[in-house]
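Chain A, query sequence.
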Amino acid sequence: MKVFILGVFCGLLVACSAAPAKLDEVKPIAIVRSASENNADGSYSYSFESEDGTKMEESGNQKQVGPKPEDIGTVSKGSYSFATPDGVVLTVNWVADENGFQATGDHLPTPPPMPEHVVKMLADLKAAGLL
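Chain A, predicted structure.
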């Protein structure tokens, strides 16, 4: 166990000592547009665009997400886009609400379709009032 910890420590030390050389070679990317708004009711929005074409925007508001009045949460939606090293622009649109975080984008993987027997079973359960 001590050998393993020593090995991990040495690996981290080597990785950390090599990192500053790479960081010195990276040119900072300027922000060319930025906007931000925070309202008294808890709603907000912000966005930015950088000189390399990266864009990000988000907005949100407070919402009752449960049965009790004190079950307040923030629901948000937004998008971001960036160019890959080969110049393809990828965009992700997302929503974060009481149903969790849901992202969509043409480049993101999607699950395979449900088998017919599962679709039928779910329909039967719903018809029986069990779903």
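Residues 2 and 70 are 50 Å apart (CA to CA). The longest helix spans residues 2-25.
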